[in-house]
């Protein structure tokens, strides 16, 4: 009995690449037959695997010779569709709390669970609906141990010296990012009641990262936009109308560290899900997840709001505090200068040259004297303070 094929994936293979699928299946069958398996046994094995609900994608479950490299065009098109589909579904569910459908409690649940729903949905679509098209997935070697200390004693003196320089730059980056994210999370508009702990948080991150460095594991750090989004998820938000414009304001926040602790514990338990089922999550789904995080972080971002003013008529400007206090030309000057600084940071932070990435923390430090020494010569200090303020 021939192996069942999905019509949608056949369309992708045929019209986006033009290669006959029979050649691929013939190649796979001949590869298995070389191992001494008969054709009937091969067909029965494939039928049994495909009829099982627990069967994963072929590239994860097959034990024979690797299949030939898939066409690049259909993989690229499908990756784009899966990424945009994940972004669309997650953002639609995130905005569902503003819709008039269903009960308010159900709308809140769908909005809070937008990410897992979209990731599971498009992972199943990609892994089962397009199983003939090979997609990029997690690379995991179960034979390698995660908790294995590197041989640091074998390093030369020059390597140790260069590592110290790089470590100093990374410590500056951690210090700047930690303080920026903590300041955003503890902003006055979030109405947090409990006191801040900037130094204790930084000390805790340093201790944890020291242990992670001994095993060559990734570091943890306060990340934007995850931390402000976490505060937003724990907040009670109300919509208010002012001069015909609708804006959201935070009434109170359920301040607790249990949610962060629980999320970290679940991340640790996710190691038990390797290689299955985490390898069923294609990389385009993760790219859509990151786009969703970036898109949701734009809400309430003053730089993005001021960039949108360039495309709006002056009569439709929202009644924000800086529009009431700062002349329109000064606002656009400040926005343009901030965009130039952002492009400079992106040029160094996203450069393909590793040495340019190493000096990225220094570029961030240089932004401080630019803000306090250079910008006041272009825009008056009172206008800068008004635009830097949140209210």
From TrEMBL:
It comes from the Eukaryota. One of its GO terms (cellular component) is membrane. One of its GO terms (molecular function) is solute:inorganic anion antiporter activity. It is found in: Membrane. GO terms for biological process: monoatomic anion transport. Residues 67-390 form the Bicarbonate transporter-like transmembrane domain. The chain crosses the membrane at residues 75-94, 114-133, 154-176, 196-220, 258-278, 290-311, 331-350, 356-374. Keywords: Membrane, Transmembrane, Transmembrane helix. The keyword Transmembrane applies. It holds the Pfam family HCO3_cotransp. It is a multi-pass membrane protein. InterPro entries: HCO3_transpt-like_TM_dom (IPR011531), HCO3_transpt_euk (IPR003020). The keyword DNA-binding does not apply. This is Sodium bicarbonate transporter-like protein 11 isoform X3. It comes from Sus scrofa (Pig). The lineage of its organism: Eukaryota, Metazoa, Chordata, Craniata, Vertebrata.
